[in-house]
Design brief:
- By secondary structure, the chain is mostly helical.
- The chain contains eight helices and two strands.
- Strands 1-2 form a two-stranded antiparallel sheet.
- Helix 1 packs antiparallel against helix 7 and helix 2 packs antiparallel against helix 3.
Length: about 325
C-alpha cells in the first residue's frame, strides 16, 4: 500500500472527527441526563424503553380511571348517607303515627311531614354530579332517574362500569331501581303472603294517604290504618336494609380502589426505575469518559497541528 501525505492527512482528520463525535456524544448524555437519546445509541434498550413507555402510559390511564371511579362512588355514598337519615326519620314518624292517642289532625300533620321527607328522597334519588349527570340513572345520565310526581323509575337499566386496572372492571354506580325499588333476599314478608311494595316512594305515598284519611269514630277504618302503618314500617325497614347493603358494597369498592391505587403507585415506581436503568446516564462513567475523550481530542488536535506543513521527505530525515 502506498503511503502518501494526503493519506496521512485523511487519517488524522478521521481520528479527530471520531474523537470529536464521541466527545460530543458524552456531552449530550450529560446535558440530557440520558444515555440513550436515539435508537442508534442502544437499539435493544431503545426498543425496551418504547414498550415500557406504553406500559407507563397505560398505568397512568388506569390511575385517572380510578380517580373518576373514586369520585363517583364517593358521591353516591354521600347521597345514600342522606337517604339513610331521611328514611330513619320517616320510620320514627310512622312509628309515632301508630300512637292511639293521636287525633286525625295529628296524623294529618304527620302526613305533611312525611310528604316533605318523601319529596326530599325523590330529590336525592335525582341527584346529579358536578357535570349535571344523574348519578342513579344508569347510562341514561341526561334525564332524571325518577318521576317527581309518581316516584316511578325512568332511568337506564344498566349500571355504569369502569375499567380500573388491566384485569379489573368495576361497577361504579347503582341504578335507582337497585337502590330505591329493591329489597334484599332476607326482607320481611307480608303476613298475608301478598307481594310487597318495593318502591320506597310508593311505600311513603300509601302511608301518607292512609294518615290523611279520617278514622275517628270508625273502627273499620282505624283497623285498616293500623295495618297500613304496619305495612309501611315493614316496607321502610326493608328499604333501609337494601340501602345499607348498597352502601356496604360502595365501601368495599372504595377499599378496593385504594388498594389498586397503592398497587398502581408501586407499579409506576418500578417502571420509573426500569426506565432509568434502560436510558438514564451513569454520571460517574459519563463524566469520566467525557474527560478522557476530551483529553484524547486535544491530543489529536496537537498531533494534527504537528503534522501540518510536514511531508514524507521530512519524516524520513
Amino acid at each position: 500500500m502506498r503511503i502518501s501525505t494526503q493519506m496521512m492527512y485523511q487519517q488524522n482528520m478521521r481520528g479527530i472527527t471520531d474523537s470529536q463525535s464521541k466527545w460530543m456524544a458524552y456531552g449530550e448524555q450529560m446535558s440530557t441526563g440520558q444515555r440513550v437519546n436515539r435508537p442508534s445509541d442502544d437499539p435493544i434498550a431503545a426498543s425496551q424503553a418504547v414498550v415500557l413507555s406504553q406500559a407507563q402510559s397505560q398505568n397512568n390511564q388506569f390511575t385517572l380511571a380510578r380517580s373518576f371511579a373514586t369520585q363517583k362512588v364517593s358521591l353516591e355514598e354521600s347521597v345514600l348517607d342522606q337517604v339513610t337519615k331521611a328514611v330513619q326519620s320517616a320510620q320514627d314518624k310512622i312509628v309515632y303515627s301508630g300512637n292511639g292517642s293521636l287525633s286525625d289532625d295529628d296524623r294529618n300533620s304527620l302526613a305533611t311531614d312525611l310528604q316533605g321527607i318523601r319529596d326530599q328522597l325523590v330529590n336525592l334519588a335525582n341527584s346529579t354530579d358536578g357535570n349535571g349527570r344523574y348519578i342513579f340513572a344508569g347510562y341514561k345520565t341526561d334525564a332524571a332517574a325518577f318521576n317527581q310526581a309518581t316516584g316511578v323509575y325512568e332511568g337506564g337499566t344498566t349500571p355504569i362500569s369502569q375499567q380500573v386496572d388491566s384485569a379489573r372492571t368495576m361497577q361504579i354506580s347503582h341504578t335507582g331501581s337497585e337502590v330505591f325499588e329493591s329489597f334484599t333476599s332476607n326482607a320481611a314478608l307480608e303476613p298475608d303472603g301478598s307481594a310487597p311494595e318495593t318502591n320506597l316512594f310508593k311505600i311513603l305515598d300509601n302511608v301518607i294517604t292512609a294518615l290523611k284519611t279520617p278514622v275517628e269514630g270508625d273502627q273499620t277504618k282505624a283497623e285498616q290504618l293500623t295495618k297500613d302503618i304496619d305495612k309501611a314500617n315493614r316496607g321502610l325497614r326493608n328499604s333501609l336494609d337494601n340501602v345499607l347493603t348498597v352502601r356496604a358494597d360502595l365501601g368495599t369498592k372504595l377499599n378496593e380502589l385504594d388498594a389498586l391505587d397503592t398497587l398502581g403507585s408501586d407499579r409506576a415506581l418500578g417502571q420509573t426505575q426500569q426506565m432509568s436503568d434502560l436510558i438514564d446516564v451513569d454520571w460517574n462513567a459519563a463524566i469520566s469518559s467525557y474527560t478522557m475523550q476530551q483529553a484524547a481530542l486535544q491530543a489529536s488536535y496537537k498531533a494534527f497541528s504537528d503534522m501540518q506543513g510536514m511531508s514524507l521527505f521530512q519524516l524520513n530525515k
